[in-house]
Amino acid sequence: MTSPIIVGISGASGAIYGIEALKMIRELGLETHLVVSDNGARTITTETPYSIDGVKSLASKVYGNKDMGAAISSGSFRTQGMIVAPCSVKSLSGIANSSSSNLLIRAADVTLKGRRPLVLMLRETPLHKGHIDLMARAAEIGATIHPPLPAFYANPESLEDVVRHSVGRALDHLGVTHDLIKRWPNG
User: Fold this and answer.
1) 93-121 tens-digit pLDDT
2) Omega of the bond prior to 86 within 30 degrees of 0, cis?
3) Contact at 8 Å (CB) between 50 and 9?
4) 179 assigned to some structural domain
5) What is the span of the domain harbouring residue 92?
6) pTM of this prediction?
């Protein structure tokens, strides 16, 4: 049996990336454990047609962001890794500085200390040096910084195509084998 994948949705613009991650992982028949920050919940209702309950229904297991006793807060709970989609600068800062001030950040910290893949789909622009320093710090401790940038070689025909391709590439960094996206020709 494959270990579950943790999906974190923080408050940055781009909640659709986390929602699409849940949908794509479900398509693959894999288990997901979801944690949504308060600002992530607000962004879901602001930017998407989904309700919070609708997003939660896409996950195998859901935790409150204040539930520091949740399974995903422990290094003994085995996972395949974690994706934070989207990842706000606030969450990036907590992760880079190992602050563990909420469950999303604690789960990311546990993922890193367990040497499991952590993919951060950072959503912020423009970037100042403080943001870049945080990204460097997170990368130095083992995170993969994976901003959701479009790949035009895939000839996207819709916003969904752009989102799915970015999420598919992020899933690659979690070690998930799939054929859910168009790859580079001859690749």
Assistant:
1) 999 999 999 999 999 999 999 999 999 99
2) yes
3) no
4) no
5) 5-173
6) 0.97
